[in-house]
Structure formats: structure tokens, C-alpha cells
Amino acid sequence: MEIKTKPSPRIEPLPADHSPDLKDAFAAYTKSLGFIPNSMLILQRKPKIVKAMAQLTASIWEPDGEVDRAFKRLVAHVVSRAAGCQYCMAHTAGGALLFGIDPKKVEAIWDFRTSPLYSEGEKVALDFAIAAASQPNGVTDEMFVEMRKHWGETQIVEIAAVAAVFGFLNRWNDTMATPLEEEPLHVGAKFLAGHGWKAGKHRR
Q1: What is the pTM for the complete model shown?
Q2: Do 129 and 45 form a contact (C-beta atoms < 8 A)?
Q3: What is the CATH number of the domain that holds 155?
Q4: Cα distances (Å, whole numbers) of residue 122 to 13, 78, 113
Q5: What confidence tens digit (pLDDT) does each residue in 14-42 have?
Q6: Which of 176, 183, 197, 179 is nearest to 80 (CA)?
Q7: Could you give the CA distance from residue 141 to residue 143 in angstroms, rounded to a whole number?
Q8: C-alpha–C-alpha distance, residues 148 and 93, integer Å
Q9: Tally of CB atoms within 10 A around 23
């Protein structure tokens, strides 16, 4: 039997109707993103994990949270960049736009530390998120002091939770070389490619 050295994809996304009991979970993703991500179509081989992830991601993107959910998408973006996950970088940039972030702010995300489009509190939070995503973890006591100047404890928990959840998603999608869908591919090409983003193994 011939074995491909670079299978594309590494594990095939299954059709959305493959697991009828995931209908509600997939509907939630469609409502949030406008489509069902291939990451979940691959993961549906373990339906319980898909259901758990749907609940978890719904909780971090809840509209009633104390941190603006559009900004949380930018938190997820810098976390994904720190992890090197091109798939999640495109998804999170698209999500930020979908939730109303100014396109110019998305374009400036790679230079947030010096951009006038970002407040001091946002800059501190994004640095905190990058440190949280680093291996080994780079968050320091001094960072918490700075975070407390701009964010309450519940807000810090929400921001850290985004970083933690994307620790799973970054590793999952990079491991699977999850095929990138058309919508986030367009976002990556338009807003991120000028700063070095490439779809790479996610569109081979």
C-alpha cells in the first residue's frame, strides 16, 4: 500500500451530517462563525469532545462577559501567533472582524505595542496573553500588577481563559494540519499576509 509522506489533510474532515447528535453543537459554530470549522469536523470522531468544546468556546465568547468578546478574539489571535498556529490566526482575525473590530485595528495587531489604535490596557492584556501562551509560561507577578491597573479579577480570568482554551485549539489544528476554510483564508490573505502569515500546511 502506498503511504503518502504529506497527506492532505492528515485526517479527513467528516461530513457535517456524519454525527446527528452534534447538530446543536454545529449549529452553535455556524451561528458564531458563519460555518462549521474543519477542526470540529475532524474532531467529531469523538463527539463528546466536540460537545465539550462547543460549550467551552461558547462560554468564553459569551456576549455578557466583562471583556468585550471582539477584543477576546484579538487575545486569541496573539496567543495563536505565539504558538505559530496559522489556522487559528486566520480564524481569530476573522472572528474579530465579525464581532465588529475596526479592520485597521486588525491590520495593526502585529504592531500593537506601538499602535495608537490600542489602549494601554489592551496592550498590557495582549502582552499578558502572549506570556500565558509561551512555553514555559512567561507570566510574571509584575505582569499581574500591571493587569490589575487596567482589569478586574473577573476580566483577568476571562482573558486567561481565552489563552488557555486556545492552547488546546492551537495544538489540535497544528497537529492535524487542519484544512483552512475559504472565509478565514480570505481574511488571512487580506489582513495578515503582509506581515508574514501563510496558510502553509493548512492549504496544501
Answers
A1: 0.93
A2: no
A3: 1.20.1290.10
A4: 36, 12, 9
A5: 999 999 999 999 998 998 888 999 999 99
A6: 197
A7: 5
A8: 26
A9: 11
